[in-house]
């Protein structure tokens, strides 16, 4: 079987990674390898003192005490240089324990300093040290109301690295996660689910009553991202004749190198919060995966252009069920003219614990563009005033040109999506930027 190495960077990356390992171990599957990196000790120490303390040892940890101060430059330029050799050594030793290493998963957030800066530094290292191994990145994007004032800078600086060095990026928006968790709570509290909530689950307090979202939403939000990774890695963790290798996702869903951002959706949604509900009807599950409410960014893919789409199904589902639902949904989805049959499917016979089936949809779709446009607008509001720039420019190796290059890279990416959208409307059928050099 193929194997993956999970690299968890920063507070968010390690919290999501912790939830992923907890869920993976519940499935009694072959557990992948991991490297935990954070420039503050708090979250990693919590992991080492919690139920997962026997899963990791000190050889898999790299920590510091002072943090990156919400500054991409500190994470990338300072800690990247300081810990480079240590990170490379631990990555090599982890890779040596893999019989067939296929993929690195990086889990990080875009808004802070360590996740964005050191996370993308590690991404570059992986390309240098393991150029043949695929690099998948799960990136959690900050909301517009994020309490880190410099998060637009950190996110745009990180995006330049994602554009250039990742094979696939799964963007996740904090705001979308919060909306999903909030919706689950509303339905539980209104009794519309007709469900029972497991004691001490991610949506209940120790007293067994439903938590308010304000109490501690991040555990449930992290659980959603962890379930995404759980479904994505199921083919590598369980045997199956209809499994999909992770390299097939990149090969089939990424027709152009920079357009490697895949919009994800999960269904049934309420499995994500440990809520016991009757299983969704199979056909309804496929419909839900394409609805706005189930996307992990605030987007509506049905009203945008698909370059390709993958459906990763777990449980007792037949190939005929997949084919029937694809044919049913195709008329309502806009696929680019030269890839009308751009579907990739996978069936893993082992369902998630406690459920009969689940579906993860990954879409290369232009609906991701508004997320990037909003991020650019937030960046420019700060950058036009040169606000907070001095915190970055005082870091060795950081120049103002880094900012102009980063925003130029993001603008070019947005323009590529614009040209694709224009072709959908018949305004342009051959986007010049996307011509393939022979």
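^ Assign residues to that structure.
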């Amino acid at each position: 079987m193929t194997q993956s190495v999970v690299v968890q960077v920063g507070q968010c990356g390690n919290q999501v990674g912790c939830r992923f390992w907890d869920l993976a171990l519940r499935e009694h599957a072959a557990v992948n390898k991991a490297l935990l990196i954070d420039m503050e000790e708090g979250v990693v120490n919590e992991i080492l003192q919690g139920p997962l303390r026997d899963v990791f040892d000190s050889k898999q940890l790299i920590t510091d005490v002072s943090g990156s101060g919400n500054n991409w430059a500190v994470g990338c330029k300072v800690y990247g240089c300081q810990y480079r050799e240590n990170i490379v050594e631990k990555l090599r030793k982890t890779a040596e324990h893999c019989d067939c290493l296929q993929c690195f998963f990086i889990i990080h957030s875009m808004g802070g300093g360590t996740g964005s800066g050191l996370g993308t530094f590690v991404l570059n290292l992986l390309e240098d040290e393991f150029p043949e191994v695929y690099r998948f990145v799960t990136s959690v994007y900050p909301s517009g109301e994020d309490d880190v004032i410099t998060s637009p800078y950190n996110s745009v600086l990180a995006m330049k690295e994602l554009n250039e060095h990742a094979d696939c990026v799964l963007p996740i928006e904090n705001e979308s996660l919060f909306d999903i968790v909030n919706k689950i709570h509303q339905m539980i509290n209104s009794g519309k689910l007709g469900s029972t909530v497991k004691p001490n689950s991610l949506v209940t307090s120790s007293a067994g009553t439903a938590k308010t979202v304000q109490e501690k939403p991040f555990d449930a939000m992290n659980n959603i991202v962890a379930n995404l990774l759980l479904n994505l890695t199921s083919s590598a963790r369980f045997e199956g004749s209809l499994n999909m290798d992770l390299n097939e996702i990149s090969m089939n869903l990424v027709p152009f190198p920079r357009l490697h951002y895949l919009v994800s959706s999960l269904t049934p949604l309420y499995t994500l919060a440990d809520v016991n509900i009757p299983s969704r009807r199979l056909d309804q599950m496929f419909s839900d995966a394409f609805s706005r409410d189930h996307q992990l960014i605030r987007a509506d893919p049905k009203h945008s252009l698909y370059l390709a789409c993958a459906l990763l199904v777990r449980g007792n589902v037949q190939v005929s069920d997949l084919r029937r639902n694809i044919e049913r949904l195709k008329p309502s989805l806009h696929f680019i003219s030269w890839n009308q049959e751009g579907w990739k499917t996978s069936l893993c016979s082992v369902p998630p614990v406690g459920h009969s089936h689940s579906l993860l949809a990954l879409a290369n779709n232009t609906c991701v563009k508004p997320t990037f446009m909003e991020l650019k607008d937030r960046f420019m509001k700060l950058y036009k005033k040169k606000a907070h720039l001095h915190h970055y420019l005082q870091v060795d190796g950081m120049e103002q040109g880094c900012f102009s290059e980063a925003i130029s890279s993001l603008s070019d990416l947005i323009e590529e999506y614009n040209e694709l959208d224009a072709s959908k409307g018949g305004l342009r059928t051959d986007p010049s930027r996307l011509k393939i050099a022979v």
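Residues 72-96 form the longest helix (25 residues).
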